[in-house]
Amino acid sequence: MPTLFEKIIAGDLPATVLYRDPRVVAFLDIRPAAPVHILIVPTKPIPTANDIADDDESLIGHMFIVARDLARQQGIAESGYRLVINCNAHGGQEVYHLHVHLLGGRPLGPMAARA
Ligand code: 5GP
Description:
Blueprint: H1 4-10, E1 17-20, E2 24-28, E3 36-42, H2 57-73, E4 81-84, H3 88-91, E5 100-104
Antiparallel strand pairs: 1-2, 2-3, 3-5, 4-5
The chain binds guanosine-5'-monophosphate (5GP).
């Protein structure tokens, strides 16, 4: 079964796409957790961070370059932002297609509650 993000990449599910190239698609999160909430997704379906291969080094770097450029375009580069990758159950991952969350536009507070 294709994931939701594979359907968005294929154009079979609507999304507000802000950036696309052969390796990466970036679109607005449907339930934004901040004024800016963008998902940067590889077109290659990598389920989780555990599944990143050694050969994916350039792809992963490219995702972060795209995130940097989107932060500039959204006007949040100087105020600051957070890049997040959730992995598996304890990481709170909902969609099993690797993605970087770009969050900003307000002070985001501490990264996670301390135990
Ligand atoms: P995760 O918890 O896997 O790191 O993040 C998945 C993200 O995908 C969530 O922030 C959720 O709001 C977003 N999301 C889930 N379904 C859809 C969808 O159909 N379209 C879009 N644009 N975002 C989605």
